[in-house]
């Protein structure tokens, strides 16, 4: 037999607390609007009863969902785990739920995910890209909810943006390699997304300023250590006199450095290696990997703060915030 128990209702919680359904409903929507003592009683009653709030009626009534949507290009990329920590350090204390989706670095998939998140009547969106399909932009315009684009600095943001200047950071890093006397520096690039292209622009600007020819080694494959090694070997085929590699991220850089060492090249004496994002893997290598330290957690935190502010009706004159990066020199330059 199926002994299915009755699901506790809002009235059950109200009866247990000795309050009205309206008070309990207000607590679920805006807990800060309920007296602290009453809020504690409601929370305890919900826990004891195993009450699960049904958000569908609120959504159908076009009420605030107390949820935001967050779109990430990858769920496995360490870069975005830091961003998520920053977001949740703000959304948790604010009583907001974050609904996550990933789009595999494609605009078409992002469009599908935006549609999905909007169907849940989210109060706002954090997007990890600044380039979107026409339909995505139309849906966001129709939804008329706050949007924060992160990681980059768009010239015309949908609403707000929080990111860093990837081209400038790359130009500084390559400039440091040139200052060390490197003349034949290759750029190892994977996936070829928008941020990869921005870093390439910085690399090209640094070489052009110094009067050296670029060596571009491209692939649209996703980044991994083994791919970094293959790109390094490809670079050596093109430029046997290679004396430096600037890599689009630390996965590629780590693989390139390990390949250099396996081929008998001394790092940095013969070939210097630099990456981007300053992941933990770079600190575990010997020599430690030089890399651009990107403020990923700070980006997530500020994006969430600004999104909540916009949901609450706040205005921000500075629509795009450029957060500072740092350079970790390591010993691989």
Order of helices and strands: HHHHEHEHEHEEHEHEHEHEHEHEE
What would you call the quaternary organization? single chain
Runs in which pLDDT lies below 50 for 5 or more consecutive residues are none
What is the terminal-to-terminal distance? 71 Å
Summarize, please.
The chain is 47% helix and 16% strand.
Protein model, in words:
- This protein has helices spanning 10-17, 21-29, 36-49, 56-60, 78-94, 107-119, 134-143, 166-179, 194-210, 225-238, 250-262, 280-284, 296-311, and strands spanning 67-72, 97-102, 125-127, 147-151, 160-163, 185-189, 215-218, 244-247, 272-276, 290-293, 320-322, 326-328.
- The longest helix is centred in the first third of the chain and has 17 residues, at 78-94.
- Helix 5 links the parallel strand 1 and strand 2.
- The strands form two sheets. The protein has a six-stranded parallel beta sheet, sandwiched between helices. Strands 7-6-8-9-10-12 form a six-stranded mixed beta sheet, sandwiched between helices.
- The termini are far apart.
- Helix 1 (10-17) crosses helix 2 and helix 8 packs parallel to helix 9.
- By secondary structure, it is of the alpha/beta class.
What would the keywords be for this entry?
6-stranded mixed sheet, 12 strands, 6-stranded parallel sheet, 333 residues, 47% helix, 16% strand
Outline the secondary-structure elements:
Layout lengths: L9 H8 L3 H9 L6 H14 L6 H5 L6 E6 L5 H17 L2 E6 L4 H13 L5 E3 L6 H10 L3 E5 L8 E4 L2 H14 L5 E5 L4 H17 L4 E4 L6 H14 L5 E4 L2 H13 L9 E5 L3 H5 L5 E4 L2 H16 L8 E3 L3 E3 L5
Parallel strand pairs: 1-2, 1-3, 3-4, 4-5, 5-11, 6-7, 6-8, 8-9, 9-10
Antiparallel strand pairs: 10-12
């Amino acid at each position: 037999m199926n002994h299915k128990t009755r699901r506790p209702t809002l009235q059950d919680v109200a009866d247990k607390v000795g309050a009205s359904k309206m008070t309990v409903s207000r607590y679920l929507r805006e807990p800060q609007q309920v007296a602290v003592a009453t809020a504690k009683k409601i929370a305890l009653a919900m826990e004891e009863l195993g009450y699960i709030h049904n958000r569908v009626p609120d959504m159908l009534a076009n009420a605030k969902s107390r949820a935001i949507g967050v779109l990430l290009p990858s769920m496995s990329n360490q870069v975005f785990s830091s961003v998520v920590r920053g977001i949740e350090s703000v959304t948790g204390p604010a009583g907001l739920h974050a609904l996550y989706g990933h789009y595999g670095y494609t605009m078409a998939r992002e469009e599908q995910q935006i549609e999905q998140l909007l169907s849940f009547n989210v109060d706002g969106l954090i997007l990890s890209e600044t380039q979107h399909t026409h339909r995505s932009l139309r849906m966001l315009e129709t939804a008329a909810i706050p949007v924060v684009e992160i990681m980059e600095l768009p010239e015309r943001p949908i609403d707000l943006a929080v990111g860093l200047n990837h081209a400038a950071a790359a130009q500084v890093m390559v400039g440091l390699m040139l200052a060390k006397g490197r003349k034949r520096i290759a750029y190892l690039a994977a996936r070829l997304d928008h941020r990869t292209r921005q870093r390439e622009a910085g690399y090209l600007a640094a070489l052009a300023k110094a009067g050296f020819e670029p060596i571009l080694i491209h692939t649209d494959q996703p980044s991994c250590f083994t791919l970094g090694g293959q790109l390094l070997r490809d670079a050596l085929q093109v430029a046997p006199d290679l004396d430096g590699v600037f890599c689009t991220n630390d996965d590629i850089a780590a693989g390139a450095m390990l390949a250099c060492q396996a081929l008998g090249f001394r790092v940095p004496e013969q070939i210097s290696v630099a990456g981007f994002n300053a992941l933990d893997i770079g600190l575990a290598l010997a020599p430690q990997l030089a890399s651009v330290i990107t403020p990923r957690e700070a980006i997530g935190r500020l994006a969430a703060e600004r999104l909540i502010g916009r949901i609450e009706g706040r205005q921000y004159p500075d629509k795009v915030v450029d957060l500072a990066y740092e350079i970790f020199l390591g010993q691989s330059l």
